[in-house]
Amino acid sequence: MADKSLRGNFSTNNLKILMPYIFALLLFPIALIFLIPFIWMVITAFKPEAEIFSRSFLPSQSTGENFQRLLEIIPFFRCYLNSIVVGVSQVSLGLLFSSLAGYAFAKYDFPLKSAIFIALMATMMIPFYVRLVPLFILMVWFGWVDHYAGLIVPGVVSVFGMFFMRQYIAGNVPLELLDSGRIDGCSEFGLYYRLVLPLIKPAIGAITIFLFMGSWNNFLWPLIIIKSETKFTLPLGLANLSTTYGLEYGPVMAGAFLAVVPVVTIFLIMQKQFVRGITLGALKG
Amino acid sequence: MGKKYWRRNLIYPYLFILPFIVFFMVFDIWPIFHSLSISFLDMIGLGKANFIGLGNYSRLFSDANFYQSLRNTVHYVIGTTLLQIPAALLLALVVNSMVLKLRSFFRTSAFLPVITSAPAVSIIFTTILDYRYGLFNMLLEKAGLSPVNWLQDMNLVMWSIILVGVWRFAGYNMIYFLAGLQGIPPELYEAAAIDGAKKWQLFRYITFPCLRPVLAFVFITHMIGALQVFEIPYLLTQGGPAGASTTINLYLYQNAFSFFRFGYGCSIAYLLFLIIFIISLGQMKFFGLFRREVA
User: Contact B256/A133, CB-based, under 8 Å?
Assistant: First the structure.
């Protein structure tokens, strides 16, 4: 009897602890809705060609032949390299410009400040598609069509990045610190470089990942500006792959797989910064 | 510090914003205004163009293809709003009620589609929605049902696009709802629980009103984004069959960059901007008025 009641107690306590897990298990199908397309992608990428069209979900064996074929039909790693070059240059220039401007808007008073700031914010409402044709014409004038410059430079300025920096600097860099720096004889640029930059590292992290994801996944602008295969970015390469070799499911899925893996990895590592980036910047606005 | 110091240092903030402003003027401000002036020209390619006043706009109003793209876009906006926002809210409520470890698993799963590029998403869904070899029809067949032509049926194709859109962005909206839910002070729930409030009442009288600003934000940003839908229809169906999934921005793209009708393309862009502007103002007013009524 004693044994039984003890066990009874044990199990009700356990049930309380286990409840959330049971709850989650029941809700697992919801997570699967989001995951199944990715699982399908991985399975297809490693499926032998003969089995892809045989209407079976799981392959009898996994194979690397789809990846081999992929590298034969398009210069996939060239696309990778291009995407990295574009991403790194856009993010570093964007960070520099937006942190400098954000610092000025947060910590200085100057004539026309609010007028300029409001004008900047107002343009955030205007869809990118409005600028599409004139931007293309501008690229023709500059001779930047089908050049890396045309791919990189127009996407360097991010009003959102600047706004985020301004908010962060306003809240996290005390004026007294800047004043004491001035008394110690630090130049205005020195204040930015020695005092502000070290204090805004978390914001830099959030903006970096945010801008990089945007650049890495950008499809429309490269589609318009790039013509030659050697300058394709990853999204462009993938789109080209599926229009030209769309019937070869295996290699196409292998390409999608290779394109998705690094973003997902970076996201898993830096998830917190990313989520903080999109919520902080937006909800304060 | 005297006036001299102030004047000497006045230059610095301008120096700091200078690089940003220069790029902004060239790549943002100038194109925005130039686009408006192009929309008044009969510009085709880079050749000489004539001023035709509102000619492009009046042509738009009698263009059956434009009306079709407008209808498809409205279909997409309404469909995704009705499915995606409740789904995202539900998802956030579920995730928020979980223990921490599971919470991050669910949140990450729902967020994966958001960080996947449109071409990758479209590749995945091409093979899922394919009529003969796709995953969906394979499952339907195994269940003894007849296959569905997801991407070639004129009446169904927009729904397939909506489905992909909801799958892609529900997790994005969820993040905002989650942030909103975590901002609600727990004391409110505790006080209500002491007063004997039921679960449903907690949601109706605490959660929902507290989420209203987030809800307004999600509604407005979702609508602005959905009106601009381009990538998935472009990649998945090329706007077909017979224009049944051509959206406004896809129509703009086809005009401007397949036929190089720059003037016409810019007029489509400005009309879309006008629509977005008016609807955003309307929504802001709606949510603003709503709030005052309660307070």
Answer: yes
| Residue A172 tokens, joined | 């996290």
C-alpha neighbours within 13 Å on the C-beta side of residue B202: 18
CB contact, 8 Å: A18 with chain B?
no
Min Cα–Cα distance to chain A from B204, Å: 22
ipTM tops 0.95: no
Domain count, chain B: 1
Q: Give which of B163, B173, B162 is closest to B88, Cα–Cα.
A: B173
Question: Alpha carbon of A93 to those of A67, A139, A196, A198, A212: distances in Å?
Answer: 34, 19, 17, 18, 12
> What range does the domain containing B139 cover?
63-260
Identify whether the C-beta of residue B265 lies closer than 8 Å to the C-beta of residue B255.
yes
Which CATH number characterizes residue B245's domain? 1.10.3720.10
* Contact across the interface for A238 and B123, Cβ inside 8 Å: yes
Asked if residue B100 belongs to a domain, the reply is yes
Q: How far does B246 lie from chain A, in Å, by closest CA?
A: 16
Instruction: Identify any residues that bridge with B41 across adjacent strands, giving them in sequence order.
Output: B51
Domain ranges of chain A: 2-65, 72-283
Report the alpha-carbon distance of residue A78 to residue B120 in Å, rounded.
17
Q: How far is residue B5's CA from residue A272's CA, in Å, rounded to a whole number? A: 42
Compute the distance between CA of residue B185 and CA of residue A80 in angstroms, rounded to an integer. 46
Residue stretches of chain A with pLDDT short of 70: 1-13, 55, 277-285
The answer, yes or no, to whether residue B46 has pLDDT greater than 90, is no
N- to C-terminal Cα separation, chain B:
47
End-to-end distance of chain A based on CA atoms, in angstroms?
64
| Interface contact B226, partner A, CB < 8 A | no
User: What Rg, from alpha-carbon coordinates, does chain A have?
Assistant: 26
Q: Which two tokens stand for residue A208?
A: 């970096």
Q: Give domain status of residue B50, yes or no.
A: no
The pLDDT value recorded for residue B116 is 94
- Say yes or no to pLDDT of B170 above 80: yes
| CA atoms in the 13 A half-sphere facing the CB of A67 | 11
d(CA A165, CA A95): 9
What is the Cα A24 distance to its own chain's centre? 28
Task: Quote the CA–CA distance of B294 and A37 in Å, as a whole number.
Answer: 43
For residue A128, which of B122, B40, B69, B224 has the smallest C-alpha distance? B224
User: To 5 degrees, how large is the angle CA B113–CA B117–CA B122?
Assistant: 85
Assess B221–A contact: CB distance below 8 Å, yes or no. Answer: yes
- B276 exposure class (CB count in 10 Å sphere: 0-12, 13-18, 19+): buried
Tell me the one-letter amino acid at A245: Y
- CATH number for region A72-283: 1.10.3720.10
pLDDT of residue B4: 46
Nearest to A256 among B12, B27, B120 (CB): B120
pLDDT digits (tens, 9 = 90+) for B126-156: 989 988 888 898 889 888 898 899 999 999 9
**How distant is the Cα of A221 from the closest Cα of chain B, in angstroms?**
11
Q: Is the pLDDT of residue B283 over 90?
A: no
